[in-house]
Amino acid sequence: MRASTWMVLLWAGLVGAAHGQEHLDQSHPAAACIAVAEAGAPELPEYPFGLYKEGVEGKVKVQLTFVAPDKAPHVKVIKASDDRSFEASVLLHVKQLRVPCAQASDLPFVLVREYEFKKDSRETFVLNNDLERAKKQEVLRSCLKHRTGLKIPKYSSAARREEVQGAVLVTYRFTSADEAPSFTVTAPPELGLLQEATQEWFAGMRMPCYDGEPFHGRVVYKYKFEGDAYGFKPGISFKELLALSSKSRLATLPSSSVDMACPFDVRLTYFMPYRPNTVRQVGDSDARRKPLLDWFADLLLQLPKDAEWKVFGDSTTFQVPCYQFK
Predict the structure, then answer these.
(1) Where is each TonB C-terminal domain found (predicted)?
(2) pLDDT of residue 134
């Protein structure tokens, strides 16, 4: 099964050259490690029991400002339901939040969250997580410019001669409108020529509309020969992805998706083993799916060594079915 499954990858070799870019979600580095400070503490606010029994629903929207990785955020309530019990529950919860992976240069980190309490479940759901920040960053990203005026980097002549093609990830941070960003370029070893060319190219990027707050972003540059194709075939399934995982990794897969409002669609951009994969829900969002999304973020496909570069930086959308392992 495994030998045939990895053939979900597709490639061919023709002449000519083409390339493009794909900007990924502009998530702040600190957003990747938001966690409760006390081990075992609830990851979401508790539904006030009396209001749950009465069937009362509510929403609370807060702005959280993290100024240190090991300190509670400053909290501003933007909007809340009439019953103050919902607000009290949220305030008690967010005091437990920390961003342990944040660097001093990443702070302050401002996050807007909306919590929803629904009567058909005792669980609380996070809605519109960081939505305002995402909208703002999309505007800033749209003004990115290269000093040469070119939209995308030129295909390295050395890479073309050596027939090197593939995707390269750039993770960057702007702190000025007229200075080069700090950035890292990641790619499999086989793509060294493309990595070097991208490194030289991105040093010329500028953000003229920079507004004073550090801007973090990621972009994938894709280089390929015209008429060629590599990466995931359309329609790859949940089952096929699992078949490409190791047995030890499969042993840690959440045992059921039944309580995750299944089925649901997931978008995965593959970067392992060099970086965690980017994984997001497509369509509706449900906090109960987080353990499975985290599992896919660390998914390392068992592929032949010479096939790894063909899926690095590529994206695929698949449906998670309702499953339950006995």
Answers:
(1) 32-126
(2) 65
